[in-house]
Amino acid sequence: MFPPFKVKVSGLDKKAKYILLMDIVAVDDCRYKFHNSKWMVAGKADPEMPKRMYIHPDSPSTGEQWMQKIVSFHKLKLTNNISDKHGFVSYHFVS
């Protein structure tokens, strides 16, 4: 996903193990397109696709490991292919 989603984690128990994951959720029932340098509504969204969460590849790690650096989800791939077999996170886009 570009630009990659990056997050600074804090407040975790240093010795506990954590799994970080990302879930993408629609904010409304509209379809959008990028036009004239801005996002515009382009109609009603397709039915919601099956949920697929992305587990960060460094998971599980201790709270100390997560908090010592910026966590990047640069390997996250998004797709609108509901039959994807590569583990990509399903989400619908309009070009």
TrEMBL record:
Against InterPro entries, the record matches this protein to: p53-like_TF_DNA-bd_sf, T-box_DNA-bd, T-box_sf, TF_T-box, TF_T-box_CS
Supply the Pfam families for this chain. T-box (PF00907)
Where it sits in the cell: the answer is: Nucleus
Give the record's GO CC terms: chromatin; nucleus
Biological process according to GO: cell fate specification; positive regulation of DNA-templated transcription
Kindly give the PANTHER family that the UniProt entry links to this protein.
OPTOMOTOR-BLIND PROTEIN (PTHR11267:SF181), T-BOX PROTEIN-RELATED (PTHR11267)
> Any idea what this protein is called?
T-box domain-containing protein
Q: Which organism is it from?
A: Patella caerulea (Rayed Mediterranean limpet)
